[in-house]
């Protein structure tokens, strides 16, 4: 009897794959290709691309992304269209290791948002903040300026609810972005709305030289509207428990009803993949930063 697989996902749990991101091997989990990058490697890759005049789209993919991609072909296609997809969630890192195709570490979107802003300030790159609750983008921009006086904030914009169908709001959003000439765009609308918007705007050719990143709740973390878990909780991989305690009504279904069973199936499928794959197929993706993989810990970014 075969091991259970994540529902609606392709049969592979984890295997090497080459994709649009580059010539190095990628890691495939439940039909989604991920790049074997560390946090530092991701930042340097984006900055290097900007220096070369190339923009792109980075997705920090968590367990919910994989689950959604398994039953939503359009969302799976969006992830495939992104230039880089990194693992934001320890279940993804665990599954890759169990399957013998290890990802080097979790690249948390919330951590990346802060670290990338610091790197952008040091390199003279500009940042646009889009989304969040009313006032959050402005508050996050103020906090980032306080922490990094050299950071160029190219603009902020908080579209109203239902802006996609608003004949005035959607053009205003596009105009704000187009006039900013930003190098980096953080889109904080939650998934899958932020991925859909990024795919649409990039498809229209808006800011082709910028890097777009869907950052979820990260702007609320940056400005202090919502607190991140203590460092030791993050290190233990229990950040999802902290987030569940903060917003039980909103997150209970995602983490407990959908997430935990899916994670169990993903890990079981990874183990089955390892057992049934020829030994020669196992590989260890090269990581430019050379960082050692961290100790395992559960959790996924909100």
TrEMBL record:
Keywords: Glycosyltransferase, Transferase. It comes from Phycisphaera mikurensis (strain NBRC 102666 / KCTC 22515 / FYK2301M01). Residues 1-25 are annotated as: Disordered. One of its GO terms (molecular function) is hexosyltransferase activity. The lineage of its organism: Bacteria, Pseudomonadati, Planctomycetota, Phycisphaerae, Phycisphaerales. CDD domains: Glyco_transf_WecG_TagA. Residues 1-22 have a biased composition (Low complexity). NCBIfam families: wecG_tagA_cpsF (TIGR00696). InterPro entries: WecG_TagA_CpsF. It holds the Pfam family Glyco_tran_WecG. This is Putative glycosyltransferase.
């Amino acid at each position: 009897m075969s091991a259970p697989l994540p529902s609606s996902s392709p049969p592979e749990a984890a295997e090497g794959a080459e994709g649009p991101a580059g010539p190095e091997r990628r890691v495939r989990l439940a039909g989604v290709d991920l790049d074997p990058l560390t946090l530092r490697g991701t930042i340097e890759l984006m900055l290097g691309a900007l220096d070369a005049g190339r923009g792109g789209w980075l997705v920090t993919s968590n367990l919910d992304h994989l689950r959604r991609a398994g039953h939503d072909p359009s969302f799976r296609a969006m992830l495939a269209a992104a230039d880089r997809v990194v693992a934001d969630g320890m279940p993804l890192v665990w599954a890759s290791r169990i399957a013998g195709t290890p990802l080097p570490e979790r690249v948390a979107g919330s951590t990346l948002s802060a670290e990338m802003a610091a790197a952008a300030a040091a390199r003279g790159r500009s940042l646009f903040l889009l989304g969040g609750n009313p006032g959050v983008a402005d508050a996050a921009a103020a906090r980032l300026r306080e922490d990094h006086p050299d950071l160029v904030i190219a603009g902020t914009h908080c579209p109203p609810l239902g802006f996609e169908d608003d004949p005035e709001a959607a053009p205003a959003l596009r105009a704000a972005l187009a006039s900013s000439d930003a190098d980096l765009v953080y889109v904080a609308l939650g998934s899958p709305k932020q991925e859909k918007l990024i795919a649409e705007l990039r498809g229209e050719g808006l800011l082709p030289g910028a890097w777009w990143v869907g950052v979820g709740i990260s702007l609320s973390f940056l400005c202090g509207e919502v607190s991140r878990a203590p460092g030791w909780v993050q290190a233990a991989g229990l950040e999802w428990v902290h987030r569940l305690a903060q917003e039980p009504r909103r997150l209970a279904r995602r983490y407990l009803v959908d997430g935990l069973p899916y994670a169990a199936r993903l890990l079981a499928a990874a183990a089955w993949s390892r057992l049934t794959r020829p030994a020669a197929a196992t590989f260890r993706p090269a990581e430019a930063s050379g960082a050692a993989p961290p100790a395992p810990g559960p959790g996924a970014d909100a």
